[in-house]
Description:
- The protein is built from 17 helices and 35 strands.
- A hairpin with a 5-residue loop joins strand 1 (52-53) and strand 2 (59-60).
- 28% of the residues lie in helices and 25% in strands.
Amino acid sequence: MRLKERILEYMRHEAYKPVSDEDLAEGLHLTREELVEFWNVIEELEKNAEIIKTRHDKYGIPELMNLVVGKLSMTSKGFGFVIPEVKKSETDTDVFIPASLLFSAMHNDRVVARVNEPGSGGRAREGEIIRIVKRANTKIVGTFESSQSFGFVTPDDPKIGQDIFISKKYFSGAKIGTKVVVEIIEWPQARRSAEGKIIEVLGMIGDPGVDILSVIRHYDLPLEFPDKVQAAADRTEAKVSAEEYKGRRDRRNFHVVTIDGDDAKDLDDGVYVEKRPNGGFFLGVYIADVSYYVKENSPLDLEARERGTSVYLVDRVIPMLPQRLSNGICSLNAGEDRLAMAAEMEIGSDGQISSYEILPTVIHVYRRLTYNLVKKIVADHDEQLINDNTDILPMLNDLVKLREILKARRTRRGSIDFDLPEVKVKLDEQGKPVNLIKREGSLAESIIEECMLVANETVAEHMDRKQQPFMYRVHEQPTAAKIDKLNDLLAAFSLHINKNSEDDSVTPAQLQEVLQKVAGKPEEKIISTVSLRSMKQARYDAQSLGHFGLAAKYYTHFTSPIRRYPDLIVHRLLRETFKTGTIMEPRREKLKVLLPEIATHASQRERIAAEAERETVDMKKIEYMAQFVGDEFEGVISGVTAFGIFAELENGVEGLIHVSSMENDYYQYVEEKYALVGERTGKVYRLGEPVTVVLVNANIEERNLDFILKGNGVYIPVKSKKKIIAEVKPDKKKPQQIIHQPNALSGETKKPKKKTGKWYNAVDKKAKPKKDGAAYGKRKNKTTKK
């Protein structure tokens, strides 16, 4: 155990009060060498707020001192919550911080908060921020405005909550109404705004590409590779040489195929299957051997580690590795020899793996297939395509059979499948959205998913049983509080999940059983949605903690090293075991420190990538929907809050119906029923129920949609000969801007005349109408990635 961990362990479990550094050193019985290191470690721990130094020069653990260390999550209304990094118990809630007690902290800052009032009955604790440990927003993206002598930038992220003051000497050529990146040079104080200087002008609002570029800069995603990284990539050979076949199993005679999306260019994985006479199968999963080309601590490796993952935005891919590798020598391109890491498995007719081998290989991809092509062959039985692919038809049919066996095996052990459709936005050459395509998972995608899942499990179990340092993909148990909340809902349908009396745990099979019981019933949508929200997020860890959603005791990510850094680490660690079967002790000690750090960073980068991807898709969804203001749509209630309900349309777009627009009653939020209930009428709007809505506002700048309920809301459009294409909410501080887009349905390309709509307070019809549907915030679903 490292000295840092020893100090924290001692202070949490043996020291019953804050202690001086001398008493701490004495209690730990440090050696002379450890004593030299001790003072630096104490300083680092105190600087990171892992321990707190009192005014009497003693050290304590924050959670034992009525303090909470964590990330500040702000709201657009000016208050925030500190999300604890460490909890004394599962019942510890986030800490509510009112605007007056923020201590100049900003969204996402890492802070120390003092708890002033304990929470009760699920209510958040309340407190104040007493220290800012680390600032998060060194660069901010926003819109520039100016007067003659000074300017300010209004952040795109409403959670930032305050404009950034810009001295005239730091305008850097920015014009009014441009999107800019500002660097903070003075942090906010009690009565002073933050100050900054403009370091990049992105372009005018509405110019092609500026919206996506703003998101890229907001999340600080790197578009270009550093020169030394690109130079290292350029030196990589374009072809595999015969010398590199040594020490590898030759699998070039196997008809390995890749199956990916139509537009995929970085092809990580290929598969090959043979039916055995005993009813079982041989399955070979062949993964690009990226670790052969990307050596540890090389410029390519350090850059890939920092990026963590490739990012798939709505209009582009920001790769983890330069294209010469990701689309070239590492990509399993058809007709080319490629180096691969393989998991070859003998699988019985019951789905159990009787034997396996993990080994380096050389392959020659026989054919590149796509999900659409395979679907047409094995599901739609397209005669022409079947005739064109008779050479691989037997293997495709065997893959279908193997998929059924593997899926049945997962189902038997309790694996939970949430079938979440993906919405793909189709853009034209100018980056304008022209269509929304809702894609459900097809049989072809399920084939590849099952092959990759069984390979990931096999590799994870292999390394865990050998007790080697490794990188795992883990998905932990839902908390007892989440299960209790789910049970409150299930009780209304005479269902219940029994928790283990000893540790309050549940099994995946219990949750799967509930979902199977409601399949096809009206309550399926609400129970599936709440069940999904009860799940924790999957993450990376150096410990094998299992995967709850997959009901898998062992799981890792082995199959995508071109686009995920943890997969590259998995390959590297496997390679280190090939010669001797184990990793040597000095190396193991280094990995004990290195792997947890990589796992934490990779998990963070994964979440940043997911947020950026979702934000660009949502942005284009709203831009697309702006042409349909005033139109009716069928939808499903996807969220319920005290301020209104969210509705999701059939095309995957989501918008808010504010409670103030509901005209026939006063509505109260009943949390345990996930519903708004009318006081007089008893009308219930509940999660999962169908609704008919009218789109009344599509606010591209603030990225939200407003609906009203058909028959329970008032929308009075102003008559116009031409349909509105888009409208941005007026801002009193700024000149009104109207952004237009060609009508994708009618083919209209001329600039249309402005049209506005008004909607009234739901209860008091005499109230003055508002100019448009105000922005009330946006709910974000937390989904679990396998």
